[in-house]
Amino acid sequence: MIQQVTSGIKISVETNFEGTFYKNYKIHFAFGYKITIENQSKDSVQLTSRFWSIKDALNNTEIVQGEGVIGQKPVLKPGESHTYNSGCLLTAPFGAMSGHYNMINFTTSKKFKVIIPSFKLSAPFALN
Q: Are strands 45-56 and 9-23 parallel, antiparallel or unpaired?
């Protein structure tokens, strides 16, 4: 598990390989990830948007950004957490993801970024 704390918000990431399939005559490697966002600060916060950089071993990069996560903009009071599952497709059996969440602190009304630590994606059959 990969973990990082930014401004009192702890991000934990777990990954798993889901399998391979063909799409548009190309093989794709499917990966799932589970993210837990834990508010360790003394203020209530809300996740408003996300930014991802997804890279594979073939040097392809995909940028994904948008509002919330999986259709939600969770509000976290001190001590609360939010967990969600998502996934991505790569055209190589190895890759990595990194990014950040944009959040707002309800006490100060300030917007801030929470770093999502870089995490690796790898198909177990491709490892030595």
A: unpaired
All structural domains of the chain: 2-119 (2.60.40.1470)
Q: Give dist(CA 40, CA 1) in Å, integer.
A: 18
Contact between 94 and 121 (Cβ < 8 Å): yes
- Bridge partners, 65 (sequence order): 51
pLDDT digits (tens, 9 = 90+) for 71-127: 999 999 999 999 999 999 999 999 999 999 999 999 999 999 999 999 999 998 866
User: What is the spatial distance between Cα 8 and Cα 65, in angstroms, rounded to a whole number?
Assistant: 23
Neighbouring-strand partners of residue 95: 56, 121
CA 37 – CA 13 distance, rounded (Å): 9
